[in-house]
Amino acid sequence: SDEPLVLGIETSCDETGVGIVRGHTLLGDAIASSVDEHARFGGVVPEVASRAHLEAMTPTVSRALAKAGVAFEDVDAIAVTAGPGLAGALLVGVAAAKAYALALGKPLYGVNHLAAHVAVDQLEHGPLPKPSVALLVSGGHSSLLLVPDVATDVRTLGSTVDDAAGEAFDKVARVLGLGFPGGPHIDRAARSGAPDAMAFPRGKYDDGTYDFSFSGLKTAVARWVEARERAGEPVPVADVAASFQEAVVDVLTRKALTVCRENGVADLLIGGGVAANSRLRAMAQERCAAAGVRLRVPRPALCTDNGAMVAALGAELVAAGAFPSALDVPADSSLPI
Ligand code: KG4
Ligand code: ZN
């Protein structure tokens, strides 16, 4: 194939991800995670993440190249997450990408992390319909995007006004004494619980905006659990997990479909770590089917942060004829889309 070979680097949070893509084909990727080092703090510690990226960068690039079966000299372009994310963590990836681009004499593309979460789906399901709506839900972001073109035109319609959806999962898991990150634990616990056991609040449910709010829900769950504990009664962990999860998933799917309806868009993409949630996948499938909306959700390994998503967007930018970034492109922790 004469499509360019793009190497992508992701270091915006606690995952050091490297992916190698040609067109819409993922040739190989590798990932190193510092998640275990953060577990005892109950959240990602920026300094710890930055140091882990520094240690993991070179070996992870080597592993990705080996898996893809390509030599470094064969790479035609380097893409890297320039933001948003943790400043120190981003800086490690951006510095490495600049060094690689300079050493190879190849163009550098600093890309937006959220747009990359959208672009990655093309590696699994082919070209994204134009326009699509994207719901991105992770530990760091909860956004609704209108995507006329993932390379050139991604518009933020709404985002969370307080906690991200994944952050709420992580905090509620902590209240329930489950592990970190909390999403998978809640997902598992909820399977044996009743989603209607408690009526937890659904923030900004029908407020006419495309924004989310999860901190009121998180606080309501914490109060409920504390009251139980004060009364010396056992906490029904499965019921709390299921009822909390139902509230989050109800709001996410409802708003995503409202965006589709109000903008006349028939294709919805869900991405980010929370897209691994089994109840979110099931409810999205039901509600999309009822609304006549086609649903795309990448496999879980492509939903959580990874390098392939950055390479996928890089390949898209090259194909669109976008200008490369200058070699002094900054890491920007609050990079707008
Ligand atoms: O995309 P991601 O790997 O990293 C960020 O950019 O934040 O997302 C991580 C988040 C965590 O908050 C984690 O608890 C959540 O995704 N998560 C889940 C599930 N798996 C991961 N949330 C709900 N259900 C899951 N099965
Ligand atoms: Zn992410």
Task: Furnish the topology, listing elements before pairings.
Blueprint: E1 5-10, E2 15-22, E3 25-33, H1 35-38, H2 46-68, E4 77-83, H3 87-104, E5 108-112, H4 113-119, H5 121-125, E6 132-137, E7 142-149, E8 153-159, H6 165-175, H7 182-190, H8 215-230, H9 237-263, E9 267-271, H10 278-291, E10 294-296, H11 300-303, H12 307-319
Parallel strand pairs: 1-4, 4-5, 6-9, 9-10
Antiparallel strand pairs: 1-2, 2-3, 6-7, 7-8
This protein binds 5'-O-[(R)-(carboxyoxy)(hydroxy)phosphoryl]adenosine and zinc ion.
Short description:
It catalyses: L-threonylcarbamoyladenylate + adenosine(37) in tRNA = N(6)-L-threonylcarbamoyladenosine(37) in tRNA + AMP + H(+). With 337 residues, this protein is of the alpha/beta class.
Number of strands: 10
Say what the CATH topology of the largest domain is. Answer: Nucleotidyltransferase, domain 5
In what order do the strands lie side by side in the largest sheet? 3-2-1-4-5
CATH class of the largest domain: Alpha Beta
The sequence of SSEs as H and E is EEEHHEHEHHEEEHHHHEHEHH
Number of domains: 2
Q: Using the 3D structure, state the CATH architecture of the largest domain.
A: 2-Layer Sandwich
Form type? globular
Low-confidence stretches: none
Distance between the termini: 31 Å
Can you walk through the features of this model?
By secondary structure, the protein is of the alpha/beta class. It has 2 domains: 5-120 and 306-319, ATPase, nucleotide binding domain (Nucleotidyltransferase, domain 5, 2-Layer Sandwich); 130-298, Nucleotidyltransferase, domain 5, CATH 3.30.420. The protein is built from 12 helices and 10 strands. The strands form 2 sheets. A 5-stranded mixed β-sheet has the order 3-2-1-4-5, with helices on both faces. It has a 5-stranded mixed β-sheet with strand order 8-7-6-9-10, with helices on both faces. α2 packs parallel to α3 (87-104) and α6 packs parallel to α8. The longest helix has 27 residues, at 237-263. The radius of gyration is 20 Å and the shape is globular. The two termini are 31 Å apart. It binds 5'-O-[(R)-(carboxyoxy)(hydroxy)phosphoryl]adenosine and zinc ion. 5'-O-[(R)-(carboxyoxy)(hydroxy)phosphoryl]adenosine binds at residues 13, 138-140, 166, 169-170, 181-184, 187, 272-274, 276-277, 304-305.
